[in-house]
Amino acid sequence: MIVLVLLASVLIAGVTIYQYGEQSKDYHEDRLERKEEQIKENIRYTLQRTTYVPTTDNLDLIFKDEIYQIADVLNVNFNIYDLEGGLIRSSRPKSKFQNDSISMCLTPEVLNNLKNSVNSRYLEEKSAAGDKYQASYTYITDGKFKPIGILNLPYFEDNSFNDHELKEFLLRLGGVYVFMLLIAILLSYIISKYITRSLQTVSDKMNATFLTKQNKRISVGNPSEEIGKLINAYNAMIDELEISAVKLAKSEREQAWREMAKQVAHEIKNPLTPMRLTVQSFERKFDPEDPDVRSKLTEYSKTLIQQIDTMSSIAGAFSNFAEMPAQQNETLNVVKIVKLGLDIFNENYIHFIADEEEIIAKLDRTQLIRVLTNLVKNAIQAVPDVVDPRILVTVSSEGNYVKIAVADNGIGIEDEFKEKIFEPKFTTKSSGMGLGLGMVKTIVETYNGSIDLTSQPGKGTVFTVKFPRIV
């Protein structure tokens, strides 16, 4: 609708300008012909009344005074030339037409065109000072219609009135079409809203569809046949999705428990084996009469306590991983907290850089430090064999996020391990349970953040964490 209104306004404006131009052209042509016919009537009347023989040679004498009278009566200037194109008389005083550069002799082109014209009339069109200029040439004849001279009537087109009228008309037309355009925009908006209201409802519901939550069915009153089919298909999909989500959640829980049970069993078995060997060895070698029995008992107890501490550490690690961090809307200066978190490390190759002194975000202080320490510990473990180890921790703002980057020049991560690096129990180290980065990812995602890594084997790794900040 809007395009049609705009197109119609452009077409009508173009047609109007063209029509005004044609009307102006026809008006000036008709006016020139009338003026020319009036002059010719007066010339014929003068030739009938004169006592001179109407010949070319006598035209100068015949129109010596009459040419000025005719020009005054008709309020128009004209010129009389002989048949060879030489100027005989002009209605303008000599001083004026010399200043106006009136041609003293007609060009051969004008004479030839006049001679070869069917109606013994030639119209010349030119431009002067930005205005259109026309000049008509016709023969002056005697009583026997024999040509004795050439009448030249110069005519300047004055379009100021028409141009003014055209401008006013276009302004009025433009006002009307601006009003029509606003009406068209309003109607287009109302109609499109009416047509697409059902589609918008379906679109909103689809955008709000998630596998992890219960989704509502779509209910639209009196939908069209096509929209009704779309709504029915969506509602059927929602029903199937809910069934699949329940089955998937159950399967994932069972799988998670199986994996967790395997991991816990594996980690607990590791300290149990040395504990068993220690007890068996102590049982075989224990001698109450041995003078060093007390020191051996102490060593035996120390070994058991170390293994028990290991099992306690394993249990604590699994407990920390399973515990989801609660969102604490505590307003923190992330730069300050990260700097304080790095103070617990004594390595002199750890450097800290911040683009700003203060970047505010709502986070839990303990969880933020836990994320930082896990990433820094991983970086420290990646640089033990590097000649000149270096770890750089940076804090900066990026749009609506605060970015924390931990970069090292360590051994790097192979491409085959990058996709698994955040999975629980996955580790590339010979020790540890692989729960650190999994816990970090859980914490970051709890606060609607993101964590990414870039790494090149043999050159180093960069972990980048982003949290929403307060702008």
TrEMBL record:
<keyword id="KW-0808">Transferase</keyword>
<dbReference type="GO" id="GO:0005524">
    <property type="term" value="F:ATP binding"/>
</dbReference>
<feature type="domain" description="Histidine kinase">
    <location>
        <begin position="263"/>
        <end position="471"/>
    </location>
</feature>
<dbReference type="Pfam" id="PF02518">
    <property type="entry name" value="HATPase_c"/>
</dbReference>
<dbReference type="InterPro" id="IPR003661">
    <property type="entry name" value="HisK_dim/P_dom"/>
</dbReference>
<dbReference type="InterPro" id="IPR036890">
    <property type="entry name" value="HATPase_C_sf"/>
</dbReference>
<protein>
    <recommendedName>
        <fullName>histidine kinase</fullName>
        <ecNumber>2.7.13.3</ecNumber>
    </recommendedName>
</protein>
<keyword id="KW-0547">Nucleotide-binding</keyword>
<dbReference type="InterPro" id="IPR036097">
    <property type="entry name" value="HisK_dim/P_sf"/>
</dbReference>
<keyword id="KW-0812">Transmembrane</keyword>
<keyword id="KW-0418">Kinase</keyword>
<dbReference type="InterPro" id="IPR004358">
    <property type="entry name" value="Sig_transdc_His_kin-like_C"/>
</dbReference>
<dbReference type="GO" id="GO:0000155">
    <property type="term" value="F:phosphorelay sensor kinase activity"/>
</dbReference>
<keyword id="KW-1133">Transmembrane helix</keyword>
<feature type="transmembrane region" description="Helical">
    <location>
        <begin position="169"/>
        <end position="191"/>
    </location>
</feature>
<keyword id="KW-0902">Two-component regulatory system</keyword>
<dbReference type="Pfam" id="PF00512">
    <property type="entry name" value="HisKA"/>
</dbReference>
<dbReference type="InterPro" id="IPR003594">
    <property type="entry name" value="HATPase_dom"/>
</dbReference>
<dbReference type="InterPro" id="IPR005467">
    <property type="entry name" value="His_kinase_dom"/>
</dbReference>
<keyword id="KW-0472">Membrane</keyword>
<keyword id="KW-0067">ATP-binding</keyword>
<keyword id="KW-0597">Phosphoprotein</keyword>
